[in-house]
């Protein structure tokens, strides 16, 4: 990387690496194996094959960060403490900057929960779709760190949370309040009102946190699956 190599660039041959670093073949191969496990290089066989610099994917980074948090015993309070800080600022930063196509994409996600759920399965699907709204909004940010963190949290909530009371019967308040906040948020984004966008999403996060606690939502101790981004 210090040599200016970028994603897709081919590394020198094994013999060249041995000569350059003065290391044994086994050491070079082990180093390549470690880099590949970290997602930093990728090996290809056959004509034109070799070892190539590889950009770590969002899916891979999400799974690796999920591995770190496996033993951290996060709570729903931990999650919403950070969501309440990050997501209102995301909304404010995007007000007046989204294209009509982007705004319509957000509205398209909202059609997945335009009507209240009738079954536990429908409520689960609507819950995932609502998180997809937040992940999509984050994807529209020009800040790669903010984008990744919010999308990571949304995926964590989708994959490893269990609400002990969430699916006993559909929760009308959870559905109606979430839809109302998101509808008003899209209107504020379209109008370019950053203050309103920040306020609406802050209220949305506080209300969602309250409802999650009412539903006795907990984070299970599970690894995040690689390759799955909502």
From TrEMBL:
It comes from the Bacteria. GO terms for molecular function: DNA binding; DNA-binding transcription factor activity. Pfam families: FCD, GntR. The keyword Lipid biosynthesis does not apply. Residues 1-56 form the HTH gntR-type domain. SMART domains: FCD, HTH_GNTR. The keyword Endoplasmic reticulum does not apply. PROSITE patterns: HTH_GNTR (PS50949). Keywords: DNA-binding, Transcription, Transcription regulation. This is GntR family transcriptional regulator.
